[in-house]
Design a protein that fits this description.
The chain is α+β, with helices and mostly antiparallel strands. It folds into 2 domains: about 45 residues; about 160 residues, Alpha-Beta Plaits (2-Layer Sandwich), CATH 3.30.70. It is built from 4 helices and 7 strands; from the N terminus they run αββαββαβαββ. The strands form 2 sheets. A 4-stranded antiparallel beta sheet has the order 3-4-2-5. It has a 3-stranded antiparallel beta sheet with strand order 1-7-6, covered by helices on one side. The longest helix has about 30 residues. It is flat. About 10% of the residues have low confidence.
Length: about 260
């Protein structure tokens, strides 16, 4: 049976539309893949990466001193009273030495029971001795308080540590020399590092025969070393007028930057 011409036209039209749709689909897909490989519509940007270093040295203007007071007694109250007695002497001494209240801070306070293992009394007979069972019993308490002091007149830190050592404190740590406000020095070190990297970039660009463009990436890492603690044990009753002068030295604040420049 022969297919009418009208049906043939409809079939041809449908096939034509289908082919157009399929062609558009593959064309769009091909262009998308083409662009993803940077072959159409993209522009490769060349870059150079330079690092810079900057540092600033400064004499410390504050010193940190830490000390602990430990006392043992039969009761908690008695142990805490013994700690408070030494603390009062220490605070009075610090104030007389010119240390402000805001620069004296309690960093920790605690008390703990002290245990001893005691055995029961046993009676032996002709069959032997029964097991000697024991148990831990509380025999007293230990009270402890840790105090941190900020000494703003660093020339006095030796005298202050010597004085604290003669007041019955258990441990004395310091001095920890540092700079009270480092933000300005950090900014100065960072600027030096950026200038160092920029100058290197200019020289490299000139040697390569290219021009520097905008900065596409920046990263900074700082090295702000903490001064070391020196543990100092002062003998009780040591003469205050024999305190040694403690050298302060210098603290180094540094900055390292990495800058990526576009070139053209």
């Amino acid at each position: 049976m022969e297919i009418p011409n009208e049906y043939k036209k409809n079939i041809y039209l449908a096939l034509f539309v289908f082919l157009i749709i399929v062609s558009l689909y593959f064309a769009v897909k091909f262009l998308s893949e083409f662009k993803s490989y940077g072959m159409i519509g993209s522009k490769e940007v060349s870059t150079i990466t330079l690092s810079g270093h900057g540092e600033v040295n400064a004499v410390p203007d504050i010193a940190g001193v830490d000390f602990t007071i430990n006392k043992e007694a039969k009761t908690v109250k008695e142990a805490q009273s013994l700690v408070a007695e030494v603390e009062k002497k220490a605070l009075t001494f610090l104030k007389e030495a010119g240390v402000a209240d805001k620069d004296i801070k309690t960093s920790n306070a605690s008390f703990n029971p002290k245990y001893e293992y005691k055995y029961e009394k046993v009676v032996c007979n002709e069959f032997g001795c029964p097991p000697n069972n024991g148990k831990s019993v509380i025999v007293g308490y230990e009270a402890s308080e840790s105090i941190t002091v900020k000494v703003r007149n660093t020339d006095d830190v030796g005298k202050i540590m010597q004085g604290l050592g003669g007041l019955g404190v258990s441990n004395l740590y310091g001095p920890n020399f540092s700079i009270d406000n480092e933000d300005g020095l950090k900014a100065e070190a960072r600027k030096k590092a950026i200038d160092d990297a920029r100058e290197k970039a200019k020289i490299l660009a000139r040697d390569l025969g290219v021009k520097l463009g905008k900065i596409s990436s920046f990263n900074e890492s700082g090295n702000y070393p903490m001064p070391m603690y020196a543990k100092t044990m002062m003998a009780e009753g040591a003469a205050r007028d024999s305190a040694a002068v403690i050298p302060k030295g210098e603290n180094t604040i540094s900055s390292d930057v990495t800058i990526v420049y576009e070139i053209r």
